[in-house]
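HUMAN: Please help interpret these tokens:
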Amino acid sequence: MDRKVQVEEFFCDNEESSGEKANLDQENAAIEHEFSSPWDDNDLILVVEDQKLHVHRSILKMTSPVFKAMLSSNFKGKDANEITLPGKKVNEFVDFLRQIYPLLDGEITLKNIKYIYRLADEYQMAKVMKDCRMFLFSVTKTKENTIEMLMLAQDIKAEEARQQCYDVLKKMTLTELESLEGFSELDRQSMQVLVLPRVKRLQECMKRILPEFLGSLDALVYLWCHDENKYKMHGAPSTCPKHRIYSSGSSRNINPNLYKLYERIKCNTCKGMFSQMAMNAKGYISPSKTYLSENIVSILEEIVDLTK
């Protein structure tokens, strides 16, 4: 091999080794914490990822039924000075231990709440689990973060925080919900709470609107077929001066303006006109026994609410 190539490879290998050593030193430095060395007469060592965590039996037994059983007289390792906990991550376990030591500032955040709760659940630490739920409840829920908050609430069984998320999401349309990242990953309970009531309400609304719609068509046909419709319908209704209906010689635009539609249905004068029409539309017999009724106003308002 060419000597120049060998020298270059040597320096490359040394640079890689130095880089790996530097990364390892940074990792080791990053995991220095309150439990790294003996303190306050600790009497037990937990080994996590080959790291020794110096802890106190009394605190573990007092806060966890699982640790209490492990350290009891009936457990084969009760007198062991070290207990290895496989499958755990040292940084997560340190954050977890901070929650049970009264003098340590163990902060629950959105970054650590999931694994702290998981470990608290494993070791049956009810207070830590409750603290996790209380923290999630305290977080402000917005359209932007609610799906993430709801998924966390599902994971840690935080029913109050879950309800907060529902309150935000129920104000959004199904189209808006579907566009949110993570919406399709919600559990069955959340899907039922968010979607099922809307479907049921829409179904009931359609049951109410169908006879009104067909009755309106019958009324229209009746008016269309009689010259003296003012007499037949027991007087013409008072029209709304703001939303006038007028004849036009040009072709009509059949694309509805939803904003104008909502505005008109909210207009008290228009609603009065619709009610007056329903009350006066009594001079005919519908073959399907369906008639325009005063329910038309409340139905229109519900449809607006459902479609916005």
Observations:
- DSSP finds 14 helices and three strands in the chain.
